[in-house]
Design a protein that fits this description.
Blueprint (H helix, E strand, L loop, with lengths): L7 E6 L4 H11 L4 E8 L10 E5 L13 E4 L5 H4 L2 H21 L4 E5 L11 H16 L2 E6 L3 E2 L11 H13 L10 E2 H11 L6 E5 H9 L6
Parallel strand pairs: 1-2, 1-4, 2-3, 4-5, 5-6, 6-9, 7-8
Helix pairs in contact: 1-6, 3-4, 6-7
């Protein structure tokens, strides 16, 4: 990260998730980040002097402390949520509520963990919800970074998250065949997605979308010196 960046105050929603947990660790390791405000429904195991955890109800967010940027990594599955309506309440409504509250608190940049295929006009419910959120954020943030990972690789068992049956079948093959999959559909490690977002968001101007292959490349390259 360039050394000339001013100290940044960041907001993170979704720190208990697969990508969100990696985002938190990347932010903790970033010397240009001075304050990390985490919004969560439950306490976090990580403890650090620059982390402040705010236990919240995402449907009724309080006024937030001043921040410069926000990372949106809230997400679930229809299976876990129990219904399309409940899924939408997390992936769209909760993320959008955080984005609006962060903008009101001064954030001028937002980084979103979305998904390949996100499109508000899609006939696929999952992709449509992701696309609706992206469209809403484009009206809120002049500087918006969107991650479009394909199959996310990572240890969900450690987080006690259920792995979808399709993922259980696909992951072993994905690691082996990844180099042969077209770039935007290539599987990508959750840690690489997080690292790419944290490295790229502070310098983002306008709208930028990172596909799976870009996320893997940025997230795995050595951090440049000051």
């Amino acid at each position: 990260m360039p050394g000339h960046l001013a100290p940044r105050r960041v907001l993170l929603a979704g720190a208990t998730g697969l990508v969100g947990g990696h985002i938190l660790r990347a932010l903790l390791a970033d010397p240009t980040v001075s304050d990390i405000h985490v919004l969560s429904r439950r306490p976090l195991a990580e403890a650090d002097s620059k982390v402040q955890v705010h236990l919240v109800d995402f449907s009724r967010l309080p006024a937030l402390p001043g921040v410069d940027e926000v990372y949106l990594a809230l997400g679930t599955t229809i299976r876990v949520a129990g219904s399309q309506q409940a899924f939408r309440a997390v992936d769209l409504d909760a993320n959008l509520a955080v984005a609006k509250a962060a903008a009101a608190a001064g954030a001028s940049r937002a980084g979103l963990v979305s998904a390949v295929g996100a499109d508000a006009a899609s006939s696929v419910f999952y992709n449509r919800v992701k696309g609706e959120l992206e469209d809403a954020l484009k009206t809120l943030y002049p500087n918006l970074l969107i991650a479009h990972p394909s199959l996310l690789l990572g240890d969900r068992d450690r987080l006690k998250q259920p792995t979808r049956w399709g993922e259980k079948i696909a992951m072993p093959f994905a690691r082996m065949l990844g180099p042969f999959v077209p770039g935007r559909y290539a599987p990508v490690e959750a840690g690489a997605v997080a690292t790419a977002l944290v490295r790229t968001l502070p310098l983002t101007q306008g709208l930028r979308v990172l596909a799976s292959d870009e996320l893997a490349r940025i997230g795995s390259t050595a951090r440049p010196g000051p």
